[in-house]
Amino acid sequence: MLAQFTHALNLIAMSAALWMAFYLFARGFPNRITLLASLALFATGIFFLDTYNHYFVPFTSSANLRAALLVIALTCWYSVTHALLGADEQKRAKSIQVVLYTLAALSVLTLIFFGKGFLRGQEDMLRTMHFEWNETTVLYGITQLFTSAGILFNLFTRRRIHITEEGKYLFAASWFLVLALAYGILTLLLPLHMPRIIEDGFVFGGIFLLGISVARHQSLVEQRTIWQDFPVAFLGLSIITILYLTIAAATGTPASRLGNIAALVIATHSLYDIGREAVERWRRQEEKRLRRRTTQSLPLENNAIRLLLDRELILFLKTLNASSGMIATHEDGKWVVTAACKSLPLESVFPDTLTENEGVIHLEEPYEGLVWLAQVFEGMQPVALVGIGDSNVKLKYSSGELELLDEFSEQIGTLISINNLQKQVMQSAVTRVAESLSTNISSELLKSVEDALRHFADTLYLGQSPLASNFAAPELPHIERGKQLQKALRDAVESLRPEGDRPPEPLPREWYNYVILHDAYIKNVPNREVTARLYVSEGTFHRTRRQAVRGVARWLEEHRKTAGH
After folding, report:
1. Rounded to whole angstroms, how far apart are CA atoms 338 and 56?
2. What is the model's pTM?
3. Fold of 2-283
4. Residue 158, Cβ neighbours under 10 Å: how many?
5. Closest CA relative to residue 19, chosen from 307, 311, 266
6. Domain 440-563 indexed as CATH 1.20.140
7. Which regions of the chain are under pLDDT 50?
8. Distance CA 271, CA 324 (A)
9. Quick one: pLDDT at residue 266?
């Protein structure tokens, strides 16, 4: 009975570790934390596979290889926890990292090439290991203990790791590791041969939780995959693997080959998944590049806009593998071809009878090689028309490709609309520049306003500010002048306040200018706390603060001119 349970655990642990290694590699590449976790899972999967096979084929001694695989897995586990530390914490732990990596490298090299290591026969594969004390086993034990201590040190160094949801899984996984080591040490000290299924169970539990923790890290932090994808993919491949093993057992396949069959099934299906993920990433990058390029909205001359449309059309057709295409603009009540590829000639007129419907339409009869049209409107006026021919590689386009055609036509329509309004836009820009220059705020005034806001609560300091003379009579006492300036600053900040009560966090963007100045200067709230309230980066905080200070300075300047000071 013990043998059956041990073999089942080894088979399940091998399958889960191998699948998670391939899964995380496919979804997380090239994230460093994910790659390290994948290597740890892969080494653990090979360890359990060799353990399962060695029971049935005991003549080949591979105990040293299994020990080396555990060292690799544990070292990668340590590297994952080290990568989660902050920059300063990583610098302080640099020496520890170098020592542990050196120990791990020496231990692996000694186990594989030089040491006598561990020798065990078939009779004790179900029991924990009792090894002879020599240079190899001592180095191996020291490496395991020190690396485990390093993992716990990293977890306790940064308290946030075991507070976050995904960090809790990593913290629990590390405690499984501690239990596995404690059980191994206990069996070394006792003369009894304890069942190894308990130790293997701890290792499997720890490595499984490590995979879940990294998967959550990928979905919640890196946002490379959705968390719901993990259980669906796990369940799907589990059903496939169980089906293969059931068929193998029903056809009389020896139990000694079931481990290799499960590993082969998982590896082949996972490699297919990696290839599919790579192709999907390439396709998303192409679509992203297309969207980025077609969002250009600079006013262009006629020749320049035609060259741009021609380039974007060729890129779009390449993305869809379309045989032909064209872009037409609406000029003087007619559709005039502006860009084309293996379709209508430039400057030719496209018939209006084919463009009666709005949106993406399919032509019953191809026209000059075109089978799909997408018409774009601005209000009630047609702006652009995009047409494509049949696919070079498929019988028909997918719904996603037709949605991409619709999106591309909308972006082309936006680009053409902007260029049709070039004169109005340029005139508006000139007007705005002139208005900005007429109300330009000097750098000296900005410095004075920011300095006064920084000392908002200090009326003595405000009384000495150059701004005080603009809002208080010279004959007033020093403190009274500071109070008058303080009131003017408060009114200026309040002028930035949107209408209505202050909403709960997270605050809308229109409240940023007011909240940053009010909380940081009037309420004297630390900048990092204001940044946390707004859920913005430090760069966004300072950029918004400078903009708000400029608004206060403009208000003060206008108020000074109105008051006649």
Report:
1. 73
2. 0.54
3. Rhopdopsin 7-helix transmembrane proteins (1.20.1070)
4. 16
5. 266
6. yes
7. 120-123, 219-223, 295-300, 423, 433-435, 437-438, 565
8. 35
9. 94
